[in-house]
């Protein structure tokens, strides 16, 4: 046997084996680990973008509310229109304005007679009723039907109400003409001191108010009617009164339609039941 000198033995590089070779299982695990890290990075980026977008959206909403909802100047819409603010302190004075330009005057006023009738029972505590009765009284003490005309039934409502031919002419030539004559008669009743006479009030007994159906008394529209209310006043320190023959309703308000009489005894003005003292309203079944 030939002796072998191991010191002289050289190994070929291709003959050496690495200490560790990755298996197919190890390669798949590394790939999955990389994919998981990639997904985590994508999730973090998405969350950051979502948070940033939410912040921007909140800032936009707050800005819109400040500009639109709060008027852009810390004042509510009601305050800018001169109306009481629901959030203002009770009793606080309304906000003042610095403008020196007067608002344009109102050129048109909607007459209640142009609106449809309602079934609302009239009140005697409304501002309109008070104003109308004041106009009636001022017309009496000045003997002016023009001054007293606001208390009279509206012409446009009468045209809707009546089925008679030429309702507008009937209103002007009969009703308003009689109203003017009765205004003059009431003025004469006050005597020489008419200008100093004071209105105490108009006594309306609501229990006498009754509904008139359409088709009755040539009416195309129903309404409430109340007879024989009392105009109470003082003159020369004494209380006196006279009646309003008939008032009828339009849209929940009373209006005079016959002052001195419904069925007239002549061609002149009349005063309904003048009395010393306040008198009492009485009932009569009229239209």
Q: Tell me the number of helical segments per DSSP (H or I, 4 or more residues long).
A: 6
Structural class call reads alpha+beta
Share of helix, binned: 25-40%
The strand count comes to 6
For the residues shown, what is the average pLDDT? 77
Distance between the termini: 155 Å
Q: Compute the gyration radius: what is it?
A: 46 Å
Largest sheet: 6 strands, antiparallel
Strand content: 15-25%
Unreliable parts: 1-26, 67-108
Order of helices and strands: HHHHHHEEEEEE
Number of domains: 2
Can you tell me the overall shape?
elongated
What does this structure look like?
35% of the residues lie in helices and 16% in strands. By secondary structure, it is α+β, with helices and mostly antiparallel strands. It has two domains: 31-85; 113-276, no CATH class. Strands 1, 2, 3, 4, 5 and 6 form a six-stranded antiparallel beta sheet that branches. The longest helix has 46 residues, at 24-69. It is elongated, with a radius of gyration of 46 Å. The N and C termini lie far apart (155 Å).
Outline of the structure:
This protein is of the alpha+beta class and 287 residues long. The chain has two domains: 55 residues; 164 residues, no CATH class.
Task: Reconstruct the topology from this structure.
Blueprint: H1 24-69, H2 77-80, H3 127-142, H4 145-148, H5 155-161, H6 167-190, E1 198-203, E2 210-212, E3 223-235, E4 238-250, E5 253-258, E6 272-276
Antiparallel strand pairs: 1-3, 2-3, 3-4, 4-5, 4-6
């Amino acid at each position: 046997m030939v002796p072998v000198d191991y010191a002289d033995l050289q190994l070929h590089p291709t003959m050496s084996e690495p200490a560790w070779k990755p298996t197919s299982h190890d390669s798949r695990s590394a790939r999955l680990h990389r994919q998981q890290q990639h997904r985590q990075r994508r999730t973090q980026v998405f969350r950051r973008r979502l948070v940033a977008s939410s912040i921007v959206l909140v800032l936009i909403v707050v800005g819109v509310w400040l500009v639109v909802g709060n008027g852009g100047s810390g004042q509510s819409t009601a305050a800018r229109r001169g109306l009481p603010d629901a959030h203002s302190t009770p009793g606080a004075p309304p906000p003042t304005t610095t403008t020196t330009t007067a608002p344009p005057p109102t050129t048109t006023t909607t007459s209640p007679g142009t609106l449809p009738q309602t079934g609302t029972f009239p009140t005697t505590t409304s501002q309109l009723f008070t104003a109308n009765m004041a106009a009636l009284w001022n017309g009496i003490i000045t003997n002016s039907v023009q001054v007293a005309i606001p208390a009279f039934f509206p012409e446009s409502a009468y045209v809707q109400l009546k089925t008679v031919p030429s309702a507008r002419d009937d209103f002007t030539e009969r009703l308003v003409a009689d109203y003017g004559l009765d205004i003059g008669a009431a003025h004469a009743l006050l005597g020489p001191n008419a200008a100093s006479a004071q209105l105490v009030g108009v006594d309306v007994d609501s229990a006498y108010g009754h509904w008139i159906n359409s088709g009755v008394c040539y009416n195309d529209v129903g309404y409430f009617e109340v007879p024989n209310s009392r105009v109470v006043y003082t003159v020369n320190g004494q209380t006196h009164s006279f009646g309003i023959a008939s008032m009828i309703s339009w849209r929940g308000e009373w209006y005079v339609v016959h002052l001195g009489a419904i069925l007239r005894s002549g061609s002149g003005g009349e005063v309904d039941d003048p009395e010393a003292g306040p008198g009492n309203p009485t009932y009569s079944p009229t239209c």
